[in-house]
Amino acid sequence: MIDHISVGVSDLERAARFYEATLxxxxxxxxxxxxxxxxxxxxxxEFWINLREAMPPVAPESGVHICLRARTTAEVDAxxxxxxxxxxxxxxxxxxxxxxxxxxxxxxxxxxxxxRIEAVTFPAE
Length: 125
Known about the structure:
- The protein is of the alpha/beta class.
- The protein has a single domain, classed as Roll (2,3-Dihydroxybiphenyl 1,2-Dioxygenase, domain 1).
- Helix content is 21%, strand content 42%.
- The chain contains 2 helices and 8 strands, in the order βαββββαβββ.
- Strands 1-4-3-2 form a 4-stranded mixed beta sheet, covered by helices on one side. A 4-stranded mixed beta sheet has the order 5-8-7-6, with helices on one face.
C-alpha cells in the first residue's frame, strides 16, 4: 500500500550518517544521493531523507512515527543499538509488546532531528 516514505532533516550529512548506520541493520543501504535528498532501500529507495535547513526539531508530542519491518528480533536489537551509537536516542528499548490483538517485538528510536522511527517483527513465540 505504501511505496515510500520521507522525513525532513536539518543537516543532510549528519542525517545520512545516522541513517546509513541505523538502516543497515535492516538491510537498507544508501541507493540515491542528490543535493538535497538521500534515498535508502533494498532494491529501490523506500526511505528518503530531505534537507529542510530551517526545520525546527520535531516536537516529541507530535505523535508521528514511522515503523520499519525487521525479519528477526536480532535485527530489532541491532537497529536500536546502531541508532544509539550513531547519535540517536532511545524512545523504547527492544522488547516484546503484548497487546490484545497481536504480540510483537519492537524498538523505538529518535533521530537527531526528533523523527521517531520504530523497527518491528512478529516472533512466532
